[in-house]
Design brief:
- The structure is a single chain.
- The N and C termini lie far apart (50 Å).
- Helix 15 links the parallel strand 17 and strand 18.
- The chain is 36% helix and 14% strand.
- The chain folds into two domains: 236 residues, Rossmann fold (3-Layer(aba) Sandwich), CATH 3.40.50.2300; 277 residues, Alpha-Beta Horseshoe (pyruvate-formate lyase- activating enzyme), CATH 3.80.30.20.
Length: 628
């Protein structure tokens, strides 16, 4: 009998919103006997259940680990404020969903780092679990705290709090990590000697242990370098990459929540990586090279997932789904196979071209899903600067086709504050919105449709990200970003155009933590102590607290976000090798200022980014290590 579970269900769940966030008895959940395994791990998502359960990486790692007889993996999510208050009042430690064990009883806790503005939630979850926040404060009896995900591109702001980070694709390395921890403990009769274990873990390609590296600064306080300080530790950590997606693990019996989540559908990963080369896009750089799953395997996976989940929608997920070499045939096969069962097929944000529109028409046979296009910039000059590779003519062609095919609502994504942006580029955003709207008005009037067209433009602020050609670029100041946001708002006077934009101070903080160094760890801790958490949620974001903490810590965030870098600069993430060479990134930055477009290497010449060469070398090394 689990007394904590009984108490939570009887005394607590009726007093919180959405109690099913905390029950953990969903369809396809995996529950293992606590004593039947050699290692107990916990997947921690630092945001709400509805957000975390939509994360494909969690589904993959959760089921991969649980299919191994020697390990178990359970889940924990950031409790909403009402649940947190009760946990604190009742002195109940944060617990896992599957077994209701306090999180401090696990051997290893792995956080996923999807977004910089979830960092305060990590500290909040550790403290709610009774776990010392800083790695240096934790003893051999505490769980190991690890992390993976895209924000490990620059994990330095979190280096104080984590024992190690996994750089690259987690399913390619997680079992090696767990095996190393298990073997270490078996040699020591179930106990661990943390320093020795961390040294062993650092020998695994793709594992970064920050305690073995020292950050150094110049006399003026600016970052100088990070150097390895431990013998036998690699000076650079190279990301782990899966070469063949057909051979990689993919779960066919994923957990099905009892409440609606953000992406409440089958998620079929059709390919990984993107070489379109948008110069602001971190994902397009760090997930290279492009790897496809075969159409035949995807059809089989879809069939299995329809049976095991009961969902009525299949989402073909990737960074650029329409780039799959057989996507048209795949969409046709799936729509034909499932249209009688009213199971629809959906695509994420579509590329602005006629081929994508052909796909959209195909999938609307069952259900007309929303249409979203991402021109990113309002003028052709700026689209060439960012290497977007689409034209206004492309956009007008696809929106014309969309309205004629029966859609009445088009969503467009843009960015503010891109390098070299002028107010003419902002005028271009407004002009495009009105042109699309007028196109919809004319077509719907011609077709004598009673509804009015609607255009939604969502405008985010440019955040310079590590391992991109724009990693050296400054972000626009807060005042300039807010002025640009108002400028666009004042230009839109038609209610049929909906204008959404991101909170500029939040984007500023995102830039600081994306590009910052280890000293940000103490800023983060103080901000959390001051009440900061759920920073990405508007109702909880406390920018005034962050401002005060930066002053107290004598850390100038503007020098991070607004600084223009040079190629010769050492960056806080230079010791982490994501495959793309620094020379390539700088060359692309130079081409941006020339407004020169670099073609996609899948369809044009090799751009010599370094990924394929690095991957071949990694595979040769691993084969040699295995004696093959």
């Amino acid at each position: 009998m689990n007394r904590l579970k009984d108490f939570v269900e009887d005394e607590i769940l009726s007093n919180v919103t959405k109690p099913l966030r905390y029950v953990g008895n969903e369809y396809n959940v995996v529950k293992k006997e606590w004593e039947s395994v050699k290692l107990r791990t916990l997947f921690a998502f630092p945001d709400l259940y509805e957000v975390g359960m939509s994360h494909l990486g969690m589904r993959i790692l959760y089921h991969l680990v649980n299919e191994q007889k020697d390990y178990l993996m359970e889940r924990v999510f950031a409790p909403w404020t009402d649940m947190e208050q009760i946990l604190r009042e009742r002195k109940i430690p944060l617990f896992s969903l599957e077994s209701y064990h306090p999180i401090k009883e696990f051997d290893c806790i792995g956080f996923t780092l999807q977004y910089e503005m979830s960092y305060t939630n990590i500290l909040n979850m550790l403290e709610l679990g009774g776990i010392p926040l800083e790695a240096a404060q934790r003893s051999n009896d505490d769980p190991l705290i690890m992390a993976g995900g895209p924000c490990t591109c620059n994990p330095e702001p979190l280096a104080d709090f984590f024992d190690f980070f996994v750089i690259g694709e987690g399913e390619n390395v997680i079992l090696e990590v767990l095996q190393t921890i298990t073997e270490h403990r078996q040699k020591r009769e179930g106990k661990q000697e943390k320093n020795i274990l961390l040294h062993d873990l650092a020998q695994i390609p793709g594992v970064y242990v920050p305690v073995f590296y020292e950050d150094k600064y110049n006399e003026d306080g600016s970052f100088r370098e990070i150097k390895v300080e431990e013998q036998g530790i690699a000076p650079r950590v190279v990301k782990r990459t899966i070469k063949d997606l057909d051979e990689s693990y993919f779960p066919l019996k994923p957990i099905v929540p009892y409440i609606e989540i953000v992406h409440d559908r089958i998620m079929l990963e059709v390919l990984r990586g993107c070489t379109r080369g948008c110069r602001f896009c971190q994902a397009g750089m760090i997930y290279r090279p492009v790897r496809e799953r075969s159409k035949e395997l995807l059809v089989k996976q879809a069939e299995e997932l329809v049976t095991t989940t009961g969902y009525n929608e299949i989402s073909l997920t990737s960074l650029s789904t329409s780039d799959h070499s057989t996507v048209k045939e795949l969409v046709n096969d799936l729509t034909e196979k499932y249209k009688e069962d009213r199971i629809g097929v959906s695509l994420p944000s579509l590329r602005v071209d006629s081929f994508s529109m052909d796909l959209a028409k195909e999938i609307q046979q069952v259900r007309k899903t929303g249409l979203t296009f991402a021109p990113e910039a309002g003028t052709q000059r700026l689209r060439d600067v960012i290497n977007k590779g689409v034209t206004e003519e492309n956009l007008m062609e696809v929106t014309d086709s969309a309205f004629k095919a029966g859609w009445s609502h088009i969503k467009l994504y843009f960015m503010l504050g891109l390098p070299t942006e002028t107010f003419e580029d902002l005028d271009g955003i407004v002009d495009l919105a009105y042109k699309v709207l007028r196109k919809g008005i004319d077509i719907m009037k011609e077709q004598k449709r009673g509804r009015q067209p609607k255009v939604t433009i969502s405008v985010s602020s440019f955040v310079p990200k590590p391992h991109t050609p724009f990693q050296w670029e400054p972000q626009d100041t807060l005042e300039v970003l807010q002025e640009k946001q108002r400028y666009i708002k004042d230009k839109i006077r038609d209610r049929r155009i909906v204008y959404n934009y991101h909170d500029a101070p939040l984007s500023f903080l995102e830039a600081v933590f994306a590009k910052g160094d280890r000293r940000l760890g103490q800023v983060l801790k103080k901000a959390w102590e001051g009440g900061c958490k759920f920073d990405s949620w508007t109702e909880h974001f406390q920018y005034n607290v962050w401002q005060q903490v930066f002053e107290e810590c004598k850390y100038d965030p503007q020098k991070i976000a607004y600084r223009r870098g040079e190629f010769t600069d050492n960056l806080p993430w230079d010791h982490l090798d994501m495959g793309v060479s620094k020379k390539f990134l700088w060359r692309e930055r130079d081409r941006a200022y020339e407004a020169a477009v670099t073609g996609d290497c899948r369809f044009n010449n090799c751009s010599v980014c370094g990924v394929c060469q690095n991957l071949d070398v990694q595979l040769m090394i691993r084969k040699d290590e295995k004696g093959r």
